Amino acid sequence: MNTLWFILKLALFIWVLFWVLKHIRIVVVQEATAVAFKYLGRYVYQAMEYMGHSYDPNGDIVRGSGKNSMGSCWCIWRWGGWVFYISPLVRPARYTDTNETDSFGDGIYIRLNQIAPEPALVMAETTEDDGASVPLNIKFVTTMVVKNPYKWLFVSPRNVNVEVAKRLETILRSWVKKGSEKHAQSMKGNGERLWKELVEEPANPENPAPDDPALNCGPTIKKMKKDWGLEIVENSIMAQDIGYDPDYQQAMQAKSKADLIADGDVQATAGRVIKTVAESAGLTVEQLKIKLSGDPTLRGKSATEGGFKEAFSFAEDIVKRDRAGDLTDLRIGSVDGTPINGDLAGAAAFATLFGRGGGNKGRRNDNRGKDQNSPPQKRPEQMNDEELQEWADEQKKGKKSIF
Question: Over the stretch 191-205, which tens digit does the pLDDT of each residue have?
């Protein structure tokens, strides 16, 4: 009887041994990764391999020598970088069972090295000194690292990447709004300075946090590490690219073109007025400019006082009428505005219509006679950017302070 009982126990032992040997599995823990294990569906153990790092008592990964595994189970054994376990009692936890597919995990492995997720595009408006705002599109990059594999895998939200991005975007949008465009541009590529403004300076008791609590990034970063096991690497938040909102940029380009047209048009009009005044006074343009530079009050003085008030009024009126359409303007009078006799008036009218002092129509016919083959000249609004710049430069040539 004893022999039979011994044989049965030996057979059972051999069967169990063969079953165990048949179901033993091995996981090779790769460098800079961690693997979590479940026993009968329940988390019991994790192992990591990361040179120069170890677990602290809370399960956080820190620099220094120490333990490279957490937890225990009778059917899990570790030898160096190999972890042996009995399946199906124990199974490694798959990353995508609890997290969305992202760059922090792959298969059963959690990556412990620094990870740079996709850049976040933050659309925000600055606050300028004059109260205006400039809409900017800023591409921010940052670097993160998993510090507690258990919390990252089992405690953090499944879409943890999205939740982290939302919090950072809220903070960065508030930061942009609190400053000017010039300040934002100065931070491009300067992660150290941006980190100080977001994390270190608001937390300094001697430099109280701004009115907007969202600007104090420090507590948010600490909370993410405490609750989700994720840490943002120091000085890693950086404005990679700063551009204008497309609609704003298009509006600014249109305004610049309109300003260029207006500036060139002003110079052209001023030149015509000066030329007309000079001719009416029997002076060259240069002589008139010299007189006005020497005594600017001459422009407001009447002809009887030796000034050019009436001549300027007449010339400006002619230009206005000329710009309004194809008009012929007939005005007969002396320089000081007093009437002249009929014979002189008729001679003046004849000279105005057919002489060199003729109206708009006469001048246009004269121009056509000079060059019948010249193409019609474009108006500034019809020019492209290169033609417009060339036209504006032509109007500015010889520009001097004459008013």
Answer: 999 998 888 776 555
86, two tokens: 């009995």
Task: Please name the residues in contact with 371: beta carbons below 8 A apart, sequence gap of 6 or more.
Answer: none
Q: Cβ distance 352 to 330 under 8 Å? A: yes
Q: Determine how β-strand 135-141 pairs with β-strand 144-146.
A: unpaired
Domains of the chain: 19-93 (no CATH), 120-244 (3.30.479.30), 257-396 (no CATH)
Nearest to 238 by CA among 202, 194, 200: 194
Report CA-CA distances (Å) from 341 to 12, 338, 344: 142, 10, 6
Name the band, by pLDDT with cuts 50, 70 and 90, for residue 49.
very high
Mean pLDDT of 249-264: 57
- pTM of the shown model: 0.59
Q: Report the pLDDT value the prediction gives residue 64, as an integer from 0 to 100.
A: 93
Written as one string, the DSSP assignment of 264-291 is HHHHHHHHHHHHHHHHHTT--HHHHHHH
Q: Which of 307, 343, 347 is nearest to 330 (CA)?
A: 347
Task: Report the distance separating Cα 287 and Cα 293, nearest Å.
Answer: 10
For 382, the enclosing helix (H) or strand (E) is none
Nearest to 263 by CA among 123, 380, 102: 380
Nearest-angstrom CA–CA distance, 320 and 306: 25
Structure tokens at 274: 């000066």
Instruction: Measure the CA–CA gap between 179 and 198, rounded to whole angstroms.
Output: 13
Look at residue 156 and tell me whether its pLDDT is greater than 60. Answer: yes
Beta-ladder partners of 230:
146
Exposure on the CB side of residue 292, measured as CA atoms within 13 A:
20
45-49, 141-145, 377-381: which has the minimum mean pLDDT?
377-381
Question: Around Cβ 264, how many Cβ atoms within 10 Å?
Answer: 21
